[in-house]
Amino acid sequence: MDLAFCSSLKELPPLLGQLSSVQQLDLMCCTNLENLSADFGTWTSLKQLNLRSCKNLRALPEYMGGLSLLSNLNLHGCGRLEKLPVDFERLTSLKKLDLSGCIGLEKVSVHFEMLTSLEELNLQLHENMSSLSSLPEELSALQKLKTFSFQDSSNICSLPSGFGKLSSLEAITIQYCPSLKELPAGFESLAALQYLKLHRCDSLVKLPTGFEKLPSLMVLEIRDSANMEGAVMDKIINLPQCYEVCITRSTQLIEPNSMKWVPNSVFKEGQRVSFCITTENFREVSVHGLIEIWLLKTKFCFDLVQDKFTLPH
Q1: Max CA-CA distance within the chain?
Q2: Which helix (H) or strand (E) holds 286?
Q3: 138-192, pLDDT tens digit by residue?
């Protein structure tokens, strides 16, 4: 059922409660919707619920754990939502959960370890949760989690210590977390990890021990992380499967005393490699002996000397 963009809708019509066979309900951008009906938890056939950008939604039904088939819940941009239902963890079929942009949430009182089917989680913590300095340890129990996105938290200093146990995790995005100081030990155990993005993590100065052993990491982005140490590059160039590296505005990685050139070891024979650097410090790029270069960007590398840019013959 599609009721998206019904901006005049303030509450669901009572008759909708009789439609027990509804599997999908799209209420995206119903900007005046304030609450769902109390009997909403009886919609036992519902699998997908989209409440994205319902900016005036104040509450979810107090008991919605009865939605035993619900697999996709999008609450992105529900800025006035103050709390989650008391039995939220009963949604054991939930595979995708988006809590980003829920700036009114005072706490995330969810026993995540109960959401055993969760595969995709988009989490955002705000100044309302100022007492929270680390993510819930229960996240480490989400053994089916494949995609994790975490953003916009000025207080979080660390990830759960058991984060390396998430053996199914394929993609991690961490951005706008200026207090995050380190990635947890055991990070190298994320054998399925293919994509890692670190954006605006100003307190993060190094990558964890064993990072270069990540067997499946293919894409790495480090953006606007000004204090990342130059020694990190040694780990990056030894990643066995990485074919796309993007480093922008992370000046410590390429300090004058650290690194002024792209090492040949970044480019692996037989692989298509994309290497993107945005810095003024690079002076030399040498990629001799390669069969194929797919993409090399040296944007804003004002010190790059023309006769030091050499391509394979």
Answers
A1: 75
A2: strand 284-286
A3: 899 999 999 999 987 778 888 888 999 999 999 999 998 888 988 988 999 999 9
